[in-house]
Amino acid sequence: MSTEPPQLDRTLQRLWQHLARLAASLLVMVEQSGPVTPSRWIRPSLLAAEALARRLLMLEVRALGPLLPLPESTSPSTRNARPANTALAPSRRGFQLTEPIASLRAGFWIEGQKKGRFGPRPQPRILEILDVHLPRAEPDNTVRSNKLAERLHALLAVIEDTAAATKRLARRMAPRIRKAGLIRKRSPLRAGHPPGARSAQVPDWLRDGLAVVTVELRAPPPLKS
């Protein structure tokens, strides 16, 4: 009897390995760039890599079987409580288990407004009021953290410990028992194309991996004997 894992399991394992190599290489590029703006293909690749990691975790959660409902918490959680002088390590923050959903406002654009991530950014109604006499703000010398590096650290932390991330996602997706009845959670994945999947800057293997995992998620879970 063959002890080799099924083809799908081997494919998913290779995808995790490719994700780890991609995240490590992107992290080196981002940290070496310093204050210089990194290449524009880094962000689409990061978005697609995070999307693939979420979908791989979704397959891991589905393999756990039906999620049992969680009882309603009667007291506020103190799990994340910590002293005021301590901070989380960069590798433990930044990875979002849920994907942002574009609002209805994203479908409208007013000429002259700047486009944001999900459509035009809000602009003040009055653009100029005695502009010459307005006070000038001092230049901001605050040292900003590298958000891309933090997100890559978080992605690598998820790849290194997929079991913990799977438990987090399963707990988030599990329905809750409330007085009004059983409340089910919506899917953490947004409908439509995965983030970054349609970008021309994304590697071919990453785009193909997203397509394979998306098709697998749409299929019904296998029956357990």
Describe the structure.
This protein is mainly alpha-helical. The protein has a domain of 134 residues. Helix content is 40%, strand content 5%. It is built from 5 helices and 5 strands; from the N terminus they run H-H-E-E-E-H-H-E-E-H. Strand 4 and strand 5 form a beta hairpin. It is globular.
Would you spell out the secondary-structure blueprint of this structure?
Elements: H1 7-33, H2 42-63, E1 70-71, E2 115-116, E3 119-120, H3 147-160, H4 162-173, E4 176-178, E5 181-183, H5 204-218
Parallel strand pairs: 1-4
Antiparallel strand pairs: 2-3, 4-5
Helix pairs in contact: 1-2, 1-3, 2-3, 2-4, 2-5
**How many helices?**
5
Helix content: 40-55%
| Total beta strand runs | 5
Secondary-structure element order, N to C? HHEEEHHEEH
Determine the structural class based on helices, strands and strand pairing.
mainly alpha
Tell me the β content.
5-15%
From the structure above, extract its key features.
mainly alpha, two-stranded antiparallel sheet, 3-stranded mixed beta sheet, single chain, 5 helices, 225 residues
